[in-house]
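Friendly challenge for the regulars: who can give me the structure tokens for this chain first? No prize, just bragging rights.
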Amino acid sequence: QAVVDLERLGEHAAAFQGHDVGFCCLGTTRAKAGADSFVRVDQDYVAQAAELARAGGCKHFVLQSSRGANTQTRFLYLRVKGEVENLVQAVGFGHCTILQPVLLCKRQESRPIEWIAQQFLGAVAQVFPTPYSVPLETVARAMVACVLQPDEGKVKVPENGAIDDLGKA
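First reply, four minutes later:
Bragging rights claimed.
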């Protein structure tokens, strides 16, 4: 494990050397970080990490993105996610998996409406995956499974149902 300064990521290129697989779950929210910092974290740092990983020999990059990622939307969060997906694909990995879940996870900060929705969706997600949520643990297992059972395609973009299947593999 290497601790790196994200503001000086290029100075930590050695930490990205010699790895066959890269996993990236880096992200924040606009509400937490502000618009400029959100873009810096969710797009700039992720794209730079992907470039460093590829230069270091990474062959399969796995990115946790978001359902609804789209470069054409007016919503900043989803637009940035779509843009970073394109940037990561352009790096040229042998395999690139971009998971697009709606995460179901516990947060430290208080978000009352999200908490209420998660109580309901959490119960539903335990029975079957929905287009609205995937438990965090399932996403983590799916990230590993997609590397252990690589697809023939160069780029794979599973959403909630496929992520749930991968997470149970």
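The two ends are 27 Å apart (CA to CA). The domain at 17-168 is CATH 3.40.50.720 (Rossmann fold). Your move, everyone else.
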